[in-house]
Amino acid sequence: MKRSEEEKKKEKEKEKKNEKKNEEEKEKESRIMMGFGLI
User: Fold this and answer.
1) How far apart are CA 19 and CA 30, in angstroms?
2) Where is the composition biased (Basic and acidic residues) (predicted)?
């Protein structure tokens, strides 16, 4: 029981990290797109 709680916590932390990474990637992409739009 306790073990699964720990695993769930780890999974949530992993998801949060992935979400943050994805957001950063999107920001980079949108900046690049905006850059191309200015040219």
Assistant:
1) 16
2) 1-31
- SS3 sequence, 1-39? CHHHHHHHHHHHHHHHHHHHHHHHHHHHHHHHHHHHHHC
CA pair distance 25, 17, nearest whole angstrom: 12
- For residue 26 the two structure tokens come to 């999107």
Domain segments of the chain as ranges: 1-39
Query: 6-34 pLDDT, tens per residue?
Result: 999 999 999 999 999 999 999 999 998 88
Residue that has been written with the tokens 């998801």 in this structure: 15
